[in-house]
């Protein structure tokens, strides 16, 4: 087996697969390793994604698209509903994916682009020489071996260890993670083109509950609560209660557990010979929890920076810092803005949320983004507006354009 | 070992690994392993969405 590559990518999720594919296309000799025996399984996702950004990375394919959305509704704790539909958005909403098939399609794409792929192969440590990352220790079928490379990309998700092995502390506080449970529920009466969000401290403390259609009569129904609120009552208890109250007739045919980083940008995502992308770099959106698109965007940037560094023959932090600059000025900007909204959102009482929803019942939404809606929600309330004044000043002055406009989920 | 993971409840999601301050946990494939760096801080037990972890104090 080959023991030396230009680039090793650890983790075969969307971040790793897009990094490996782009790097292979740029002519690098790439190895992608994935510890699971089947890419994408078990799923840790509600599978919602915006259309526009997705097609930047892969041609949409009906084999992994379960639902094509035309709108969404948000329910405040007292049941006030705010609806946004397609006519107001110009037709671009989102898809609900089949991640098992989607993730495998991405890895297939990267293999066809020339990257080598090894599954059921887990990174167990980094090979370091004088503080510089120059490969990994990997385990396959119980046997451990070394694989060397010029650069390592850590795309190893929520449970990432790659950063920590290089001395970057990526551990999250409970208040920086949403802890989630989701069921795939069938035989229920839902609108297959609408996704629903439920807010409220009784439903999902400092988080939200979602119903994302996966076709006729079938939906991902899940809840995420802020980790600091988890204890006597856990995500699974909130979801079970909602199911009893709202969908008692539903049949559960899959269970999904997971954590979503909502910390906002972490201090450091590169070191000598190493780049972190996606959930490993805690790049998911702090308000929506969406992380698929951000992971793919970051993966692409990482591949380009790695290719340049290898061309120059310089893999030091100084060179790889280009990655920090590029992701922080694009997806990082949005993550930071969402973080501001999140800090306000998690402090909102049910009364605040009801009041906001009521004040919005007559507003016409031109956009379908959950984030835009939340911005509008907070904008309608003077006190919250004051808390978020910096944000709105920037948005109003157009200092910050949503270049990476990702609608619904990201 | 100072925590007990109920592998019949665990859904191998990795949330516990993400909060462990000392890196004592590892999501292998369909199970979580704990090493002796564990300080019984209890964060993993708090974050687990289904309550699969018990801390022995
Ligand atoms: C309940 C839930 C709902 C969500 N809903 C949405 C949503 O609707 N929309 C959205 O955009 N995002 C959503 N997210 C977030 C989204 O799933 C993640 O942000 C996204 O998967 C991140 O991609 P990634 O490639 O960084 O990591 P992952 O997809 O987690 O991939 C990491 C991969 O690395 C592998 N790996 C880990 N360690 C090692 C190792 N040591 N060696 C080898 N391989 C390793 C893992 O097995 C895994 O396959 C949700 C998350 C959760 C938990
Ligand atoms: S958080 Fe709970 S369910 Fe998830 S891997 Fe850890 S013990 Fe298992
Ligand atoms: S108790 Fe604390 S140190 Fe021990 S495994 Fe859990 S999070 Fe890590």
From TrEMBL, chain A:
GO biological process, one term: glycerophospholipid biosynthetic process
Anything else known: Reduction reaction proceeds via syn addition of hydrogen for double bonds.
One of the record's GO cellular component terms: membrane
Top EC category: oxidoreductase
Domain called Digeranylgeranylglycerophospholipid reductase catalytic: residue spans: 176-260
Family recorded in the similarity comment: Belongs to the geranylgeranyl reductase family. DGGGPL reductase subfamily.
Co-factor remark: Binds 1 FAD per subunit.
Annotated source species: Methanohalophilus euhalobius
Protein name listed in UniProt: Digeranylgeranylglycerophospholipid reductase
Entry-linked InterPro entries: DGGGPL_reductase, FAD/NAD-bd_sf, Geranylgeranyl_Rdtase_fam, Geranylgeranyl_reductase, GGR_cat
Lipid metabolism is among the record's keywords: yes
UniProtKB/TrEMBL annotation, chain B:
UniProt cross-references to PROSITE patterns, sorted A to Z: 4FE4S_FER_1, 4FE4S_FER_2
Limits of the 4Fe-4S ferredoxin-type domain: 1-30, 32-57
Entry annotated with the keyword Repeat: yes
Pfam families from the UniProt entry: Fer4 (PF00037)
Signal peptide boundaries: none
UniProt key word Metal-binding: yes
Protein name: 4Fe-4S binding domain-containing protein
Species the sequence originates in: Methanohalophilus euhalobius
């Amino acid at each position: 087996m080959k023991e030396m590559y230009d680039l090793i990518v650890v983790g075969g999720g969307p971040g790793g697969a897009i990094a490996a594919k782009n790097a292979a296309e740029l002519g690098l000799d790439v190895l992608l390793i994935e510890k699971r025996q089947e890419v994408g399984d078990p799923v840790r996702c509600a599978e919602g994604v915006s259309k526009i950004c997705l097609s930047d990375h892969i041609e949409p394919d009906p084999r992994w698209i379960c639902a094509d959305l035309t709108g969404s509704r948000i329910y405040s704790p007292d049941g006030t509903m705010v609806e946004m539909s397609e006519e107001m958005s110009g037709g671009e909403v989102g898809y609900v994916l089949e991640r098992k098939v989607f993730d495998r399609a991405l890895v297939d794409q990267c293999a066809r682009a020339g990257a080598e792929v090894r599954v059921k192969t887990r990174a167990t440590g980094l090979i370091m020489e004088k503080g510089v990352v120059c490969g990994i220790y990997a385990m396959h079928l119980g046997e451990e071996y070394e694989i060397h490379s010029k650069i390592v990309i850590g795309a190893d998700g929520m449970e990432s260890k790659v950063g920590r092995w290089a001395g970057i502390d990526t551990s999250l506080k409970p208040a920086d993670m949403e802890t989630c449970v989701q069921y795939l529920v069938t035989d229920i009466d839902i609108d297959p083109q609408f996704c629903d969000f439920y807010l409220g401290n009784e439903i999902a403390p400092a988080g939200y509950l979602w119903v994302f259609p996966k076709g006729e009569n079938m939906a991902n129904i899940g809840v995420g609560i802020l980790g600091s609120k988890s204890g006597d009552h856990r995500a699974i208890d909130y979801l079970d209660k909602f199911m009893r109250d709202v969908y008692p007739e539903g049949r559960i045919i899959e269970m999904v557990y997971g954590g979503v980083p909502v910390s906002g940008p972490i201090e450091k995502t590169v070191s000598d010979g190493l780049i972190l992308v996606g959930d490993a770099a805690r790049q998911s959106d702090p308000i929506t929890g969406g992380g698929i698109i951000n992971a793919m965007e970051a993966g692409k940037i990482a591949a380009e920076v790695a290719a340049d560094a290898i061309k120059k023959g310089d893999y030091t932090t100084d060179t790889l810092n280009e990655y920090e600059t590029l992701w922080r000025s694009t997806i990082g900007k949005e993550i930071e803005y969402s973080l501001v909204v999140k800090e306000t959102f998690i402090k909102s009482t049910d009364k605040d949320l009801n009041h906001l929803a009521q004040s919005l019942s007559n507003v016409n939404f031109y956009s379908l983004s959950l984030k835009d809606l939340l911005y509008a929600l907070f904008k309608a309330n003077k006190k919250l507006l004051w808390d978020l004044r910096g944000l709105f000043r920037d948005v109003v002055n157009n200092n910050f354009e949503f270049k990476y406009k990702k609608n619904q989920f990201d | 070992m100072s925590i007990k993971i109920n592998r019949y409840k665990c859904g191998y999601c990795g949330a516990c690994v993400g909060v462990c301050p000392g890196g004592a946990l590892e999501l292998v494939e369909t199970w979580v392993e704990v090493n002796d760096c564990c300080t019984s801080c209890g964060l993993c037990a708090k974050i687990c969405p289904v309550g699969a972890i018990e801390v022995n104090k």
